[in-house]
Design brief:
- By secondary structure, the chain is α/β, with parallel strands linked by helices.
- The protein has one domain: Nucleotidyltransferase, domain 5.
- Helices cover about 45% and strands about 15% of the residues.
- It is built from 8 helices and 6 strands; from the N terminus they run βββααβαβαβαααα.
- Strands 4-3-2-1-5-6 form a 6-stranded mixed β-sheet, with helices on both faces.
- A hairpin with a 5-residue loop joins strand 2 and strand 3.
- Helix 5 packs across helix 8.
- It is globular.
Length: about 240
């Protein structure tokens, strides 16, 4: 039985204009593809002009200002179309796409695709170290950020919060997790389905915890993409 970590795989990451995944616009995007041995064989990078102002709090994280994006970035519609085509080709050929906190990146891309008339992705199979780590190491203390987990697993993360660096580090960190937790070693399609269940259960548990003090709290558990909100609300 071939498991995902012994086959070609890819990693995907975005840097954006904000935290709201349904409203955020793409600023940079990266897709890194490795062979069965983990050697990089393809790298795709994009800088987009998101068509809106990049808030200071976002540019302080990823380093791209509105002025830089307008000067050097390509139209967001073109970037969205090309990015979606690269990812769909990977999915079509059975290459799993790794994304840390995948529901954020894929929801941003889903919203951008809807905005520019780009067909939605199949999004299968996706591998998400964030969901997996909460499942296999649920009593771990401390933050579960990409930076924290890379430090825990001894993975170098230079230029954190640039999409290219984050994508490759995510891939390396998940490989390291598979070394520590043999239960993650299985065909990517099976692991994808398990993550759908894990994400739903994790969200329900967190929502239950929050409702002890905030009765109206809602934690969405859809994975690897959140459903679009009612367009009349203006989120897109």
């Amino acid at each position: 039985m071939s498991t995902w970590h012994t086959l070609p795989r890819a990693a995907f990451d975005l840097e954006t204009t904000g935290r709201n995944s349904r409203a955020a616009r793409i600023v940079t995007a990266s897709v890194t593809v490795v062979d069965a041995d983990g050697s990089v064989i393809k790298e795709h990078e994009w800088l987009a002009d998101p068509g809106v102002e990049i808030p200071t709090e976002a540019s302080d994280v990823h380093g791209v200002t509105t002025e830089q994006a307008r000067r050097d970035g390509r139209p967001a519609a073109e970037v969205t179309r090309e990015l979606a085509a690269v990812l769909q080709e990977l999915f079509d050929t059975g290459v799993p796409v790794i994304a840390f906190n995948a529901s954020y990146d894929f929801t941003v891309l889903a919203a951008e695709s809807a905005r520019y008339g780009v067909p939605q992705l199949s999004r299968f199979p996706v591998l998400d170290p964030f969901i997996m780590n909460k499942q296999v190491d649920r009593y771990r203390k401390g933050k579960r950020t990409l930076t924290a987990l890379c430090e825990e697993y001894g993975v170098s993360l230079d230029n954190a919060h640039t999409s290219a660096a984050d994508a490759l580090a995510t891939l390396r960190m998940l490989d390291a997790m598979a070394g520590k937790f043999p239960k993650l070693r299985m065909p990517a399609a099976h692991l994808h389905q398990l993550q759908v269940e894990w994400a739903s259960a994790q969200a329900a548990d967190f929502q239950s915890y929050l409702r002890k003090t905030k009765p109206a709290a809602v934690i969405e558990g859809d994975w690897p993409v959140l459903p679009p909100e009612d367009a009349s609300r203006g989120d897109f």
